[in-house]
Amino acid sequence: MKNWILGICALSGSLTALGQSISAGSITGNMEATFQYLNADSLIGATQPSEKGLLNSYMNVFYTNGKFKAGTRIESYLPRIQGYPNRFDGTGIGMRYAGYANDYIDITLGNFYEQFGSGISFRAYEDRNLGYDNAMDGVRLILRPIEGVQIKAIYGRQRYSFQGGKVIVSDGLTRGIDAQLRLNSFFHRMDSVGLDITLGGSFVSKYQADNNEEYILPENVGSYGGRFDIRFKKLTFNGEYIHKENDPSADNGYIYNSGHAALANLGYSKKGFGVMLSAKSVDNMSLRSDRTAGLQDLFINYLPAMNKTHTYNLVATLYPYATQPLGEIAYQGELLYNIPKGILGKYAVPINVNYSVAYMPNRSMNGIDITDSSRIMYKTSAFNMSDSLLWQDFNINATYKFNKNLYVIGSYYNIRINNDVSKITPDAHGIISTQIGVLELGWKINKKHNIRAEFQGLFNQKIYEKDADGTFKRVGDDKGNWATGVLEYTISPNWFFGIMDQFNYGNKDADLRLHYVTVSAGWIKESTRVTINYGKQRAGLFCVGGVCRFVPASNGLTLSVTHSF
């Protein structure tokens, strides 16, 4: 009996000590639940699911205690909301990890997100708005052996789907290493002259067994390259180049060409003035851990969009541009200038001018035998551009403040997009050209009450096709002119209300001159946010950073609750 009592006391003491240790740590996290109730609407093509109600929800819980860290995420799709991949189903653990970190080592086992450089060689990330998650499941090691040196290594499989409450990973295995060196840590005099230089390089490979009966496929495919980041006073210059070995896949038709991706950015900024010039060259750079995957599934790398991210409804939703991993050469220039205060009024007037364009690469067939078993189908080089336009966007906006409580923003957009490549709308072929104007007004009534309004118009819409002689000829219109009105009313710090009407008033078919009206309301209390929306949404692409997902038409209610702790 004495031994039992001593054992219980010892166990009690151990648990008490453990509880005190755990209490010294911290627990943080966040949650979100989105519920939809949908109605059928034959005019806009909206259907009602058999369940009528749809639910996406998740909760992240992160624990840290000194140098130890751990976390998990519970996910639930009962069933998934519209627009999410059909492989999201059930309730279960969607992410879990444990790790240890100090000043010179950081190791994580389980799920992790990571990026090498700009991401064109490797990027594992999540965007819940897109329903995108390619988290790695394996091990990540970060070493900082000396000041200014950082080495990353990753090894694992990518998340592919969430079915029956379980994560399904890719058949392919992804491995990689990245090194970064900051020269200022070794040459301290560079700081005194305002010069900062960082160099980096990475190597990423994937393994997937060859189970193709028609071709002999490489089971190990590597990509490698380097990057630099130079900052001198108000000037910045950075770039990265990645070469990918031959990677026959469903994306490229199982050809054996190698691929490349190159990025370069040059910028200068000072008070009231800034300019940025960017360039990108991509060819055959679809890199997935499963060569048979499609859409946005299992990308190992990320190719950032070379165009401005738009937020106004008509600009962002009708003709968005998606990055083309099989090939594009793109350029972007942006100018920011503040007209000094006193010239046009009491306040400075910020003006932003942006231009971006993307073309197909110039691919030469000279000297290439397409019947050759090598299946090297063409030759090209970095920034070798053809005359086949993919995308063009010119936009300008200016902000004018009448006083500290009243402002107006005027914007103009001129967009051209190759619908044969981007496939934005099934009703058109060739180049779609359109112009959009936006006027935004904001009025701070008093300390708590604010009103914001938007008036948007999409007009002068045209479709062009290229003739045999290479000239473009107008062949018609897409869906005609559109107008959008937005009105928002905010009562700080807790309440907001809004209404939006997207109206296709220029549609040739009078029966399809529809109003897509949505009303919304929300309540905010500290880190809790509750929003409710009811109305219609047109079918189309939803894009973030050049990555897109198709969102079907819907008519119904959406309720969302978010909280952080």
Key phrases:
565 residues; mainly beta; 6% helix
Main sheet attributes: strand count, strand direction, barrel closure: 24 strands, antiparallel, barrel
Task: Please mark out the parts with pLDDT under 50 across 5 or more consecutive residues, or reply none.
Answer: 1-21
First CA to last CA: what distance? 46 Å
Number of strands: 32
Give the amount of beta strand, in percent.
Answer: over 45%
Helix content: under 10%
User: What would the principal axes of the Cα set say about the shape?
Assistant: globular
The helix tally amounts to 4
The whole-angstrom Rg is 27 Å
Structural class: mainly beta
- The average pLDDT value, as a whole number, equals 92
Could you characterize what this model shows?
- With 565 residues, this protein is mainly beta.
- It is built from four helices and 32 strands.
- The strands form four sheets. The chain has a 24-stranded antiparallel barrel. A two-stranded antiparallel sheet has the order 6-7. Strands 8-9 form a two-stranded antiparallel ribbon.
- The protein is globular and about 55 Å long.
- The two termini are 46 Å apart.
- Mean pLDDT is 92; it is low at 1-21.
